[in-house]
Amino acid sequence: MMSNSTKSIKKLVAVSLAASAICATSAFASPVIKAYQVNGDIKNIGVESSSWSKAKETEILAYPQTTIHLNDKKANELNDGNKAKKIKVKALTDGQNIAFKIEWADKTESIQSGNAIKNTEFADGFAVQFATKYDDPLKLPYIGMGSQDRPVMVYLQKAVAKLFEPNGNGEVTMQVNRANAPKFEKDLERFDIDVAHLARKSYQKAFVAEGFGSMTEIKDKSSDFLMDMKFKKKLFGGSNWEGSVVRPLNDTYVKIYNDPIPVAFAVWDGDKMNRDGLKHLSTWIIVEFDGVVSDDKLKKEFDKPLENANLKNGEELTKANCSSCHNYGAVHEAASAYMAPNLSNIGGYSTTPYLIESITQPHNVIVPGYNANAHTNFAWYYGDKESGMTSAMPAFDYLSEQEILDIVGYLKTLKAEVE
Ligand code: HEC
């Protein structure tokens, strides 16, 4: 027989679930970054520029990317239980260029020395990602480096020491002790110029990508951009990185008009051996142009009402249909870690349209994890780019619209707490 107190606890649980169903919608309202219009050229802007003072700051969240389970015990331990990071973003435009500045907390400054070949040392870093096509909010690129036929453009900077290394081959044995600098005079000057040049070329990069492992660096002049990154110790404890990137509004890869555009941000913590997909990642964030009134198609779709989602039912449907392949929050280790993407933070870095599409049409956007060659037992997809790829995930297109809504509402709650 159920005691009175158990009954009231049950009731409480039901009430709080109902409350969270309501919160769900308001909490999901997308943040919007306003690009502030400035007079004067911002082409050479860095983190220290005074122009930033005019722009309004927007706080966004970046979630630990848990998609792929790394085969690195130490890195996994260091990143276990990671929380979401707050990132403060500002944007500027001068009518020709667009610039972003981001600021995030990091306890330690991890600068990679050598020429980034040593694999025991990892750099702090950040990336800003653009969708090459963004007119259809239902068909945005996959957040982790794009997907086939939905490319992204990524600007990446890593904190790498500018080494005094004369030949550009990464040979550090020829480094010069600064104390002996006077002996080298002109040579030293020449070397410094070379090194500054090499360091910029090597560690501030622009890529076009259609999925992990398909990143193609843009090496010609078709993409003009400038990045900057500075570590700042705060007066009363704590420390921050600041990073900035500026690019033309229009280039061969991404054409930006006055319409709202989606932009995503990622940060890496070198101290936690972050690299590649092991990082903190935001979802697509909307950038609007200050003073321009337009129909924000992105916002309408991103904030598509989930108030009618029954989270409890969503949780049960997810358990019944998805947990044999996917790990996430509560049933953490039920499936093999290599079987399918880990969904523990999927609510943090996915939009509603992406989640609906993932469930009903999994072949459209394939998370390029393991293929049959890499892991015969755990292929995430079959085929290849040439012959076409099919997902190992079945299409759940037989679920009702309401059931899909319930699942998506529940998936939206899967995300780490904020740090
Ligand atoms: C047979 C195993 C299997 C089942 C069952 C399954 N999935 Fe998947 N799922 C996968 C694989 C493999 C991928 C990666 C390939 C791809 O993107 O389609 C994936 C990808 C996803 C993604 C994209 C993940 C990301 O990081 O972007 C989502 C979301 C997802 N599944 C949700 C679900 C939901 C919800 C269910 C249940 C209704 C489900 N899956 C059932 C195997 C499965």
How would you describe the overall organization of this protein?
This protein is an alpha+beta fold and 419 residues long. Helices cover 23% and strands 22% of the residues. It is built from eight helices and 15 strands. The strands form two sheets. Strands 1-3-2-12-11-13 form a six-stranded mixed beta barrel. Strands 14-15 form a two-stranded antiparallel sheet. A hairpin with a 6-residue loop joins strand 7 and strand 8 (216-217). Helix 5 crosses helix 8 (401-412) and helix 7 (352-360) packs across helix 8. It is globular, with a radius of gyration of 23 Å. Mean pLDDT is 84; it is low at 1-26. The structure holds heme C.
What labels describe this entry?
binds heme C; 419 residues; Immunoglobulin-like; two-stranded antiparallel sheet; alpha+beta; 6-stranded mixed barrel; globular
What's the rounded overall pLDDT mean? 84
Based on CA inertia axes, which overall geometry fits? globular
Number of helix segments?
8
How far apart are the first and last residues' alpha carbons, in Å? 43 Å
Topology:
Layout: H1 4-27, E1 32-37, E2 58-64, H2 73-79, E3 85-93, E4 97-105, E5 125-131, E6 152-158, H3 181-203, E7 204-209, E8 216-217, E9 226-233, E10 239-248, E11 261-268, E12 280-281, E13 285-289, H4 297-302, H5 311-321, H6 346-349, H7 352-360, E14 381-384, E15 388-391, H8 401-412
Parallel strand pairs: 1-3, 1-13
Antiparallel strand pairs: 2-3, 2-12, 3-4, 4-10, 5-6, 5-11, 6-7, 7-8, 9-10, 11-12, 11-13, 14-15
Helix pairs in contact: 5-8, 7-8
The structure holds heme C.
Heme C (HEC) binds next to α5 and α7.
